[in-house]
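Justification of resources, computational component.

The compute hours requested in this renewal are based largely on the per-chain cost of generating structure records like the one below. Each record pairs the submitted sequence with a full structure-token output. That output is archived, and it is also reused by downstream analysis tasks.
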Amino acid sequence: MKRIIVLILMLIVKISFAQLKEKTFKYGFVDQTGKEIVPCKYDGIATFENGFAIVQLKGKSGVVDKTGKEVIRCIYDEIINKQNWIAVSNKNTKTQYLIKSSDVLLTKKYDDAKTLSPEIIAVKLNNKWGFIDVIGEEITPKYDEIIEFADRFAVVKLSGKFGIVDQIGKEVVAPIYDHVQNFKEGFAVVNSNNKFGVISEEGKIVVPVKYDMNFYFKDNVSIVKQENKYGLLDNEGKEIVPVKYDFMILNDELIQVKSSDKYGLIDKTGKEMTPIKYDAIESFKDGIAVVKLSGKYGFINKEGKEIVTPKYEKADDFKDGLGAIRIQVGN
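The structure output for this chain reads:
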């Protein structure tokens, strides 16, 4: 008898679990007043992202907006909801992208999308890239690539050439160069036929595309090279120091120059700080640099003054206020 009772109880438990498993739920959304905005008719829902939420019905996904409108019908196998765009796809079909703009989902579908800034989105259609701004206006896709976007500007590629567009798609630098570096501190370096120049954010050619080396502006000056000679430009493209030296390199706050196998120092205005007479000048350490002259070593400071006349067999960099020296004694 007890065995029968146990079996009956086990059967009741199994039936109860089966009934529990058969329970189904439907989902929706209410607003802060308690009003049902999205009726409880979906099999699953996700949280809202910038005005839109993914919903599921009968194994398919769609999208609703905050008014409860189903802006994308539940016909897709997968939907990805990002801040500025929504990607939809079915098995064996390519992913398509719809752009969000001011709480409106644009109806045109693109082959790819990427957020460049809060104000602009890059979109791809028929293997060409364009832009959509924050109000939904499209700059017709025509570029082969969008290389990077930084500080309101994007480097673009068209027919193998590079240029720069601003955040509303206006071409600041026409895509006619072999390479372009994005704007930094208001200036962009361009390269054509292995010659370099500089263009301002206004699209003005600041430095003609004629120099043989890349530009590196520091404290508003850049060393340039042309026909194996070096000079110095300011950031308005003016030659502070004519292109006349055999070599030039920054040495702390000064510029080390070479002429006829001799070295000297100039400042960033072109003023000569030391005569061009030394066989070598080392890097400044603790404000002092080792110099070599006629096989002997000494020291100079940043004013170009010889604090120790070159007379030692060897000298090492200053450290903790002292520099090591060496002289020869005996044979």
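The helical segments are 2-21. Residues 5-13, 15-20 have pLDDT under 50 and may be disordered.
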